[in-house]
Each structure stands twice: as structure tokens, then as C-alpha cells.
Specification:
The chain is mainly beta and about 425 residues long. The chain has helices spanning about 1-20, 280, and strands spanning about 25-40, 55-70, 70-85, 100-110, 115-125, 135-150, 155-165, 170-180, 185, 190-200, 210-220, 225-240, 245-255, 265-270, 325-335, 340-350, 370-380, 385-400, 410-420. It has an 18-stranded antiparallel barrel. The model has no long low-confidence stretch (mean pLDDT about 90). InterPro entries: Porin_put. Keywords: Signal.
Length: about 425
Amino acid sequence: MKRLVLLTMLCAFVLGMAATTASAADIKATGSYVFEAVWGDNSFDDDDQDSDFDVYQRLRTKFEFIANENLKGVLYTEVGTSTWGETMRVGDDIDDVVTIKAGYIDFNWPGTQQNIKVGHLNIDLPNAIGDGSIILSDELPTAVISGPITDNVAYLFGWHRLDKSGAQNSTADELDAVSLALPLTFDGISVTPYTLIGYAGDNYDNDLNNVWWAGASFEMTMFDPFVFKADLAYGASDNEAEANETDGWYFAAAAEYKGLDFMTPELFFAYTSGDDEDAATDGGGSMPNIGVGDWALGSFWFGGDWGVGAQSSVDADADYFGFWTLGVSLKDISFFEGLTHTVNVMYIQGTNDDENVGVGTDLTYLSDDDSLWELDLNSQYSIYDELTAYVELGWIAPDWADERNINDDEAWKVSTGLNYEF
């Protein structure tokens, strides 16, 4: 209840200041309020006892306190995601679902174009394929500076606190990281090489010494209306226990055609290396995953959906690498004003050795004997410029490895909702 009272007081203060005084800061509020009903089963088990129908909501509001064009503070709040009847029951307060999503200072160094952000904010490593970065796309404590070097070259350098936890002998220690990106932009082509290097204190959990990634994001528009994109990355971790070390690759490519008025077709491919049969003793063959990536292709298995409900996606990339996928998206199909559709058809197969799976192995850890077909049909209707109604239909048909000894039950969803953006 205290958090709810504090949030209410904050909103009243913000609105009161905006309405009654021309203070040193102008106040701008933006946000996204989503309400969604979902019928679906993403467990791949027709006999599970979970409810197939639920209603959810999530309310995000961002306040910008703008002193001038070179200085502002940002406070980003979130209420939810709330499940009607579970986290929001009759007679219950909602203080347990109120969080601060981000809060930071954003300013340019006087007389320059060098921008500095300090606080808790969203950081995305460069990516061209899919939604978000497969390595780092999350809100976290950070300090970052960026700006132009020449007309064609820019830079971004950041320091990030990824984790601070108790370890051996109850001694607290940290996992920190530094990132560097160099966007290179020329006529018809852009390339952004980057690196992320993580380093742990001596007492950090899991005996991790260091972890690093290096990659590049690429986009070519010189053959317009054809657009070509690609991502390439390699990552490795060093651990005192050899069995916990891992290193591997990620590659993705896409080609889309923007010459049609009524839709944009896209062909895409993505690959992440997997573990071989000796992974349990010799270390893994996939890129390190420290749980701060948020990447998706399609809108069901990997995430990428508009919705906020638990059945809206499987969100497989949150836990494991070790897959490849090939697919086609027909995006922004439109024959009537305000109404658009997207169709996704994709095939997914694992790249982890089948010796690593058995009864009880998480289904998001795909072996080279696991495969899935995904079909999505998503529609959006603009009621107002700020209010969109949507319907998402998703279906996944799996063919699981024999070693799992489970049925090939399908996953499905029908989700519909409203999204108010202001």
C-alpha cells in the first residue's frame, strides 16, 4: 500500500506542477496502457490443468522533466503486468505490482553534441534482425556517453552493473560490464561493430571470471526497394569450472522488398550454435546467456507478440540458445484504411546434440532432433491515432526428439486487446 500511496503522490505532484506553474522544467508524459484477453495453451501439454483463458493489463507511464533542449530527467513507471483475479482480486490493492521501470538523467555536455545518461535505463546492443538484441536488451543501472566523431562515424561507450549478489562466505560481489559501439553510416549502407565485456569480482556466484561478446550489425538500402540486413556475433565465458565455460556464434540475415503499396514481404534466417555431446564435462558450444537479452522473430515461440499475457508467447530465447530458424513474414498487409495484418510462417530446429536431452529436459532447449512449425496471423485496427485494437492468432506444431518421451501436442493462442499510446 505504501508504494501505491507514493506513486499517487508522485502523479499528483507532477500534474500539479504542470498545471499551476511555469517552473524550471517542462513536464512531458508519454506511455502505453495495454489490456488483453487471451485464450491459449503454450505448455505443449493438452492434459495440463492451467486455465486456457485469462485477462491481463499493464500500464506504463514515462515522465520527462525537461529543463532545456540539453537537459532532462526521466522517470518511467509500470503497473503490472497484472492478471485479473490473481494479482488483482476483489478487495485487493495493486501496490504489489507497482514498479519503477527506469529513472535517469539525460544531458548533453555544454557546447557539444556529446550525450550522457546516468541512472537506471534501457540499453540495447546494435541489432538489425528481429525485435531487440539477443545479447543485451534490458533496463539496468548504467552510465553511457555517446555522440558523433565525424559526419559518418559515431560512438557509444557504457558501463553497466549487471548484478550484485552474495557469494561464498556471504561476501557480496558484482558482475559489471563495459560496452563499446561504433556506428558507421554512409549512403545506402550502415555497419555498427560492437563489444560487451563482463567481469566479475573474486567472490561472485558461479565462479565466473569474465564473459565477452563481439559482433556487428549491418543494413544495406542502396538497392531500394530491396533492403538487406545481417547480424553476426561471437561470445565466450571463462569459468573456474571448465564444465561451466561456453562459447558460440549467432548469425542472422534478412531480405525485404518495400516496393509494394499493400505489404512488405521479408525472408529471414537466424542461427545460434549449440552444445555438443560432451557439453556436461567440456563446456557448452553456445554463446553465453546472462539473462539480459530480449530478442524475437515471429510472435509466439520466441516472443515478439504485442500482448502482455502469460499465454501470448513461449519466449524461448529467454533461457537457451542452440537453434536455427528460416521463415517468411508478410508485414503491413493493408487493403482498408486503419487495418493492417502480418503473417509469419517459420520453421525452427535445434542445434544442441540430442545426447543432451531426455525426459524432463526443458522444451526450450532444442536438440537437433527437435523441430517446430509456427504460423501467426496478427491484425491491428487503429480506432484513433493513439488507440489500437489487435487480434493475434498463433499456432505451433512440434516434433520432439524421441529421447524426451512426450507427445507432440500443439501450442495455440487467440489474444485480443487494446493498446493506448500517448
